[in-house]
Design goal:
Its main location: cytoplasm. The protein is of the alpha/beta class and about 150 residues long. The chain has helices at about 5, 20-35, 40-55, 110-125, 130-135, 140-145; strands at about 10-15, 60, 65, 80-90, 100-105. The chain has a single domain, classed as Mannitol-specific EII, Chain A (3-Layer(aba) Sandwich).
């Protein structure tokens, strides 16, 4: 699986004025649904996971990767990308506040692990999170996440 298969320009929004973690989850899930990757109910599934397990998906300082089991809600793997105008507290003790929200949808466990692996590899590159957060165009986001080094 490659990130260019998971992210389209329509699934990216920059410097979005959102102020709650629920609004960020809804916005990320709405982009996935608009692209046909999920059906209605995915944001609610993510919020149920958040209620049950806490903000485990705040995976690095400033970065959240909301996701939930597919349960028939996910049609195809995808990742929406939101950079936030103002950082949001998701409730994570060490990695708050969040400025970059990568909402992940995968139709099964294999696709989920493959997508997470691709994202983790890309995000672990020096300076990547800062570059993504500072990006001012969708093309910059796509290039950062999908170009080969």
């Amino acid at each position: 699986m490659k990130l260019e298969e998971l992210i389209t320009p329509a699934m990216i929004q920059l410097k979005v004025p959102l102020y709650t973690r629920e609004a960020a989850i809804q916005a990320g899930a709405a982009l996935l649904m608009a692209d046909g990757r999920t059906v209605a109910g995915y944001a609610e599934a993510i919020e149920a996971n958040l209620s049950r397990f806490g903000p485990y998906f705040v995976i690095a300082p400033g970065v959240a990767m909301p996701h939930a089991p597919s349960s028939g809600i996910v049609k195809a793997a995808g990742v929406s990308v939101l950079t936030l105008k103002t950082p949001i507290h998701f409730g994570h003790e060490h990695n708050d506040p969040v400025s970059l929200v990568l909402t992940l949808a995968a139709p099964d466990g294999k696709a989920h692990m493959a997508a997470m692996g691709c994202l983790a590899q890309r995000l672990s590159q020096p300076g990547m999170i800062a570059q993504l957060t500072a990006a001012t165009t969708k093309e910059t986001i796509l290039n950062l996440l999908t170009k080969e080094n």
